[in-house]
Amino acid sequence: MNIDELKNAWSEDVSDETPEISTEHTNKINLPLEKIRKNMRMEFWSTVGILIFGFLVVWVPVPEAPFKFKFYLTVLLFSMVIVVSFFFSKFFKLYRDISNPMQKTYESLQDLMFQFKLNEQYYLSFMLSFVPFLVCELIIVIEFIPHRVPLSDFQIATTIISTLAIGLFGLFLLGKYWYKGFYGKYVNQIENLLNDLRK
Q: Where does the pLDDT of residue 78 fall: very low under 50, low under 70, confident under 90, or very high at 90 and above?
């Protein structure tokens, strides 16, 4: 076999492994991808807005609020910003990959599907990472908000433990529901289109 025949055989193998997707299928795939990108943008900006609102609420001039109370909540919010930044850096990588116009081969779309599955786990981790912040906020509120009748140690312990249990369960369900509604149904559409291409 000479060099030209070897080159031709190599080209045929590569084209067999990564077939081009037809324009019709590309258009069908682009629609759910654009919906995912739109929801990612909306979620990013709404999260930024919520964090800014949180800082504003903490530092609204309320004369009776002690400095320690505001300082602890500010530290808590800054910690949340760090956690949010970490997870959004992962989401941003996916956002860029979705925006890549080179997603025209079956193989590249399979890789994208793998990233969607990975980001689903990131998403649940992202939601559950707020449980410690919820507990810390509750502790700060218990310590600094005056009560008509002081809370007993048992009341404080049961309040924190029940908040932790409900928070974990609630945020897990919220994460599953939110992901399914905003991303999962579009990921399923892409997966179904890929299954059609496989046939």
A: very high
The count of C-alpha atoms lying within 13 angstroms of the C-alpha of 175, restricted to the half-sphere facing its C-beta, is 19
Q: How many domains does the chain have?
A: 1
- The count of residues in the chain is 199
SS3 content of the chain, % helix, strand, coil (to 5): 85, 0, 15
At 8, the pLDDT band (50, 70, 90 cuts) reads: low
16 found inside a domain: no
Is 11 within a domain?
A: no
In 10 A of CB 50, how many CB atoms? Answer: 11
Asked if 124 and 169 touch (Cβ cutoff 8 Å), the reply is: no
Q: What pTM does this model have? A: 0.73
Largest interatomic CA distance in the chain = 92
68 closest CA partner among 148, 128, 151, 140: 140
Q: What is the domain range of residue 77? A: 21-198
Q: What is the pLDDT of residue 166?
A: 87
- In degrees rounded to 5, what are phi and psi of residue 20? -70, 145
